Amino acid sequence: MRRRNFIKATVGAVIAWPLMARAQTRRIGVLMNLAADDPQSAKEISAFLDGLKERGWTPGGNLQIEYRWGAGDHELDRKYAPELVAFAPDVLLVAGGTTVGLLQNLTRTVPIVFVEVTDPVNRGLVASLAQPGGNTTGFTQFEFSIAGKWLELLKQIAPNVRRAAVIRDPSETSAIGQFAVLQATAPRLGVEVRPVDARDITEIERAMASFARDPDGGMVMTPTGAARGHREAIIALAARLKLPAVYAYRYYVTDGGLISYGPDVTEQCRRAAEYVDRILKGEKPGNMPVQAPTKYQMVINLRTAKALGLSVPQSLQASADEVIE
Questions:
Q1: Same domain, 203 and 287
Q2: Backbone dihedral angles phi then psi of residue 255, each to the nearest 5 degrees
């Protein structure tokens, strides 16, 4: 009898083990606003995974992750958002405010952690920064005042600029606030700012070719999903049209852009892992405050400056976090 009971217990344990293992595996859905093969995608996801591993989560072990890549294409976002909800994740990691809105329309119960979102309160994504409420929290990327800094840097690195084309996505609610700051900053710098409302690279190329026919022009590339997905083409366009341009992210400059000022988005993904960990352990996203960037970085590409015939002031180089030679 004892032997029979032992065998039953052993068989029961063997059967139960896969069920226990599955029960202990947690699910994360990830929807990013870059392409899967973009080198920056690898950096952001690597930072996120490193943050999870530091907290005891192992993909393929106690964690299952399903990825989707929007590549700055809103149609792809609309396709992938319901797929990730159908995956029945325990938590979603999402990049970009428009994408967060899509997912909130699909679920008010699955926790959402966002990165790279501007002005989440006025977008209606959270009730407040301190107490987001609902199922969403995360990390903001810009205060609107940063837009004024972009124009100041453009004027410092290219003093002859008198006109600045501001490329923006009109479907992004943050575009209005950013352009208002640029308009307020422009008079004291002696610069006329002109909005270029463009949702894709074809519209951007057409508008910028027309803008560049007149002299003393420059460009401000505001952070949009479409711009991120087409940054190589935009950087090449600025070079071809001989337009000094300022960008929001470091990787535009490492890819050949002139100057950037903005948050470290890779670090945001690492910080997001902490929030995902806390949610998986039972905390409610609505009680977790939305966090701002801890650091902004300025990067200058001297090779690009030389190609544009610009002499970068030593004072500007000294204040940069990174100078690419």
A1: no
A2: -90, 0
d(CA 142, CA 146): 7
CATH number, domain with residue 253: 3.40.50.2300
Rg of the chain over Cα atoms, rounded to whole angstroms, equals 23
Q: How many domains does the chain have?
A: 2
The first and second tokens of residue 206, run together, are 């057409």
Please check whether residues 137 and 155 belong to one and the same domain.
no
> Are residues 66 and 176 located together in one domain of the fold?
no
DSSP state of 55: T
Residue 245 CA to residue 253 CA, distance in Å, equals: 10
**Cβ neighbour number for residue 60 with a 10 Å cutoff:** 8
Provide the residue-wise pLDDT of the chain in tens; the chain has 325 residues.
454 554 444 444 444 444 444 448 999 999 999 999 999 999 999 999 999 999 999 999 999 999 999 988 889 999 999 999 999 999 999 998 889 999 999 999 999 999 999 999 989 999 999 999 999 999 998 888 899 999 999 999 999 999 999 999 877 778 888 999 999 999 999 999 999 987 778 889 999 999 999 999 999 999 876 677 788 999 999 999 999 999 999 999 999 999 999 999 999 999 999 999 999 999 999 999 999 998 899 999 999 999 999 999 999 999 999 999 9
What one-character-per-residue DSSP string does 71-99 give? TT-HHHHHHHHHHHHHT--SEEEEESHHH
Decide: 171 and 98 in contact? Cβ < 8 Å: yes
Task: Return the number of other C-beta atoms located less than 10 Å from residue 181's C-beta.
Answer: 18
- Same domain for 178 and 224: yes
Residues 38 and 132 in one domain: yes
Q: Model's pTM, two decimal places?
A: 0.88
Q: 318-325: which pairs have CB atoms within 8 A and are 24 or more residues apart?
A: 321/297, 322/250, 322/297, 322/298, 323/299, 324/253, 324/254, 324/299, 324/300
Q: Are residues 188 and 226 in the same domain?
A: yes
Structural domain for 307, as ranges: 146-263+297-324
